[in-house]
Amino acid sequence: MCLYAGAATGNGKGAVSALPADSVKICQLLSKVRQQPATANVPLFFARQFLGVPYVAYTLEKFSSERLVVNTRELDCTTLIENVTALTLCAYRRQYTWQAYLDALRDMRYREGKADSYTSRIHYFTEWITANTAKGIVKEIQAPNPPFKAIQTVKVDYMSTHPNSYKALREHPEYLSDIRRMEQKVSGGKFRYIPKGLVSNSALLKKAVRDGDIIAITCKKKGLDIAHLGLAVWQGNVLHLLNASMIHKKVIIEPMTLAQYLQKHPTHTGIRIIRINK
Questions:
Q1: Given its phi and psi angles, is residue 212 left (phi above 0), alpha (psi -120 to 50 degrees) or beta?
Q2: pTM here?
């Protein structure tokens, strides 16, 4: 039985912010996945349930104190990925409760698994990958070569050099020292990725990318590691991106191919591939 919001909350790991509609949605999805055949692609099943949900940025930034925010009614590219991953983990673990979902979401979003401070939240997706790999939640695919012909050397400092872009940093400049330390730890990592010139080569991509894999789009924008996130959707022999789109203002499977999408954005350099562990 799935317990609804109010019946279970934070387990002493920080406050939870969710509307009853969010817990109802999560419980409905966890119930529906139990009816899927054993061969179902679980991440893609959940991702498709969010198609049409409006794109809204900064849904995690609305509160003056840190809390675990659950918002299934409005999604950006990161919260879409986190919701799909948390639900997928619940299905893989055969834990179909609201509390199991909260625990999974909190554990992947926060460095210590506690929603107690803005600086304990994971902000850069490279750290998200590394931290959740260490927790056994995901693994990054970096072979074979080709198509993983390029290496990204991460250097992040966008948050500390643009503090006015972040509500919490505007209101709490004392957070900046912790943010800088975090950026220094994340910077310097090297990761293999697929350069965008090879993303049109379906034969190569088929060796590396599966339906439902998380696609992290690398970029050359100063101070950032990842520009955008989505999930892999193969349509025949062509790869598309299921994403919360700022352009389309909703969760959508991009009509253009992923190769076309990348070419349309000059600062995009390629893709990193992350797979949720069973």
A1: left
A2: 0.96
